[in-house]
Amino acid sequence: MEEQLGAAGSRSQKRERLRSHSCDQCEKVFKRKSHLVNHQSIHTGEKPHTCDQCGKGFARACTLKIHYGIHTGVKPYTCDQCGAAFLYKAHFINHQHVHTGEKPYSCDQCEKVFAAKGDLTVHKRVHTGEKPYSCEKCDMSFTRRGILIRHQRIHSGEKPYCCDLCGKSFSRGYALQVHRRIHTGEKPYWCDQCEKAFISSGALSCHQRVHAATPPPPEELLLLTQSNGS
């Protein structure tokens, strides 16, 4: 009987300790007080750990330690399949799915599957209509932060991607990649109707309308020829 009472008392004390490490904002419970302190910064917005290289602040010291890798170039997680290195463990784990073909994250709305949890999160916005990244210049909203950053260059005029062969600049990395094919002569997109080659998928799509019942107007054909480096 005494043993049962002792066990019950021990369980009660354990529950009491857990309650003492619960967040008074959202009632989330933590095993350690230090974990609770770290968590509470989510609600307060406090970021006491500051990078002495760029001034960026972080709520947790361990996150700051990982961030330093951006400045030092240290990427501790290396893929033994292809040698690709990563700063964050989560990115490393997601990358490994490229080799295994595994896509463990599935959408409960349409059953589409993804290799990375972040990609699933973004995909779900197709169903919810959520666009959390808003442009303060024109009020347009986007599902991804990267798309917002590219959009903002329309307003700023920034073109950070510069061709080292002719000096022409572009707002998007892909546009520079396509442009460089003018210099290299590479044309990876082939028409299956006439075997003509093009520097971009967009140029190929435009060309294929020549074979369709309704061809593009002459001015569009001229633009197509110029963009293809002909």
From TrEMBL:
Q: Residue ranges of the C2H2-type domain?
A: 21-48, 49-76, 77-104, 105-132, 133-160, 161-188, 189-216
According to the record, the segments passing through the membrane are none
Pfam families cross-referenced by the UniProt entry: zf-C2H2, zf-C2H2_6
Q: From the UniProt record, which GO molecular function terms apply? A: DNA binding; zinc ion binding
Sorted keywords for this record are:
DNA-binding, Metal-binding, Nucleus, Repeat, Transcription, Transcription regulation, Zinc, Zinc-finger
Q: Which GO terms describe its cellular component?
A: nucleus
Give the region (Disordered) as residue ranges: 211-230
- Where in the cell is the protein located? Nucleus
Q: What does this protein do?
A: May be involved in transcriptional regulation.
Annotated family: Belongs to the krueppel C2H2-type zinc-finger protein family.
UniProt name for this protein? Zinc finger protein 239-like
What organism, scientifically named, is this protein from?
Cottoperca gobio (Frogmouth)
* Taxonomic lineage of the native organism: Eukaryota, Metazoa, Chordata, Craniata, Vertebrata
Q: Which gene encodes it?
A: LOC115005960
